């Protein structure tokens, strides 16, 4: 189950990382434009993507911490932010690719220090995020940070090398990573906004846990709420069941669903059935 105090702490970590990443990315963009360094410019685009996502994750975690339904519309802020930032970043990347023929590899060696400072910031963020790796969104960002760290270290050496082929290879790798990551985030944001039913591993895990507890689940619906999930369960019980028994089953089912850490909301509906075959569960 999600620890609210740790969620609040994780929210602050993401906010701090957003400020740090945005600051170093702005420095990369400025010096990249001054010295016409394609590596710095492309890496700054990547940094702006990461800074935007960290800020959105911070807001989402803060909403999750409050666990108040009146704030739940803010979960869509993450998705809307992803859509807007994705459109801007893709436009910038595509526009920059058009001018990649003007690439300059003869830039001051000390510019590599900027990318290595960025790598140091990325590593520091990864280090602080480790204590929250039980939160799905943090665990996902940690994997992302490892790739960022490796890419930034390589970028620094590419600047020093002044090798055109090596620079082009690194630039294309960063651009490919940006485009792939942007489309992935874009797809998830759209699915969340339209309220699509989630049919991933989480749904199967909840189903298996409920089945193990001998709870007769007729339907399971899982919907994304930003980086979290809302679970809706329909449970069948005999029509002559006591109110006390129905309450216990409902509470047990809710507790099981909440035990999965990406789940932020659980709704359980009890429906009467005249005859229920033992251990019959139906999933959509």
Summed up, what is this model?
Helices cover 66% and strands 11% of the residues. It is mainly alpha-helical.
The count of strands amounts to 3
Return the CATH architecture of the largest domain: Up-down Bundle
Separation of the first and last Cα atoms: 25 Å
**Count of structural domains:** 2
CATH class designation of the largest domain: Mainly Alpha
State the low-pLDDT regions, or none.
275-284
Helix content: 55-70%
User: Largest sheet, order of strands side by side?
Assistant: 1-2-3
Helix/sheet category:
mainly alpha
Element order, helices and strands?
HHHHHHHEEHE
Give the helix tally: 8
How would you characterize the largest beta sheet? 3 strands, mixed
Q: What is CATH's topology name of the largest domain?
A: Alpha-lytic protease prodomain-like
What percentage of amino acids are in beta strands?
5-15%
Give the mean pLDDT: 77
What is the general shape? elongated
Describe the structure.
The protein folds into 2 domains: 190 residues, Alpha-lytic protease prodomain-like, CATH 1.20.1510; 73 residues, Alpha-Beta Plaits. It has a 3-stranded mixed sheet. It has 8 helices and 3 strands. A hairpin with a 2-residue loop joins strand 1 and strand 2. It is mainly alpha-helical.
């Amino acid at each position: 189950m999600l620890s609210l105090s740790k969620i609040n702490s994780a929210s602050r970590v993401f906010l701090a990382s957003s400020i740090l990443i945005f600051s170093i990315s702005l420095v990369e963009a400025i010096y990249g434009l001054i010295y016409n360094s394609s590596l710095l410019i492309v890496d700054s685009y990547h940094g702006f993507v990461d800074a935007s996502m960290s800020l959105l994750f911070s807001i989402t975690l803060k909403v999750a911490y409050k666990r108040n339904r009146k704030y739940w519309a803010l979960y869509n802020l993450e998705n809307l932010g992803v859509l807007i930032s994705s459109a801007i970043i893709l436009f910038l990347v595509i526009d920059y690719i058009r001018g990649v023929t003007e690439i300059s590899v003869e830039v001051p060696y000390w510019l590599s220090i900027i990318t290595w400072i960025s790598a140091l910031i990325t590593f520091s963020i990864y280090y602080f995020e480790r204590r929250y790796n039980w939160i799905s969104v943090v665990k996902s960002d940690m994997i992302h940070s490892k790739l960022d760290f490796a890419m930034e270290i390589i970028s620094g050496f590419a600047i020093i090398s002044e090798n055109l082929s090596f620079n082009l290879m690194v630039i294309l790798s960063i651009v490919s990573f940006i485009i792939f990551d942007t489309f992935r985030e874009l797809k998830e944001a759209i699915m969340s906004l339209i309220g699509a039913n989630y049919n991933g591993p989480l749904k199967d895990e909840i189903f298996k846990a409920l089945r193990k507890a001998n709870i007769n689940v007729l339907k399971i619906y899982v919907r994304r709420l930003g980086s979290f999930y809302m679970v809706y369960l329909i449970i069948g019980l005999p029509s002559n069941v006591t109110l006390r028994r129905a309450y216990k089953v409902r509470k047990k089912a809710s507790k099981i669903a909440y035990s999965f850490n990406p789940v932020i909301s659980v709704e359980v509906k009890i429906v009467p059935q005249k005859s229920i075959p033992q251990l019959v569960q139906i999933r959509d």
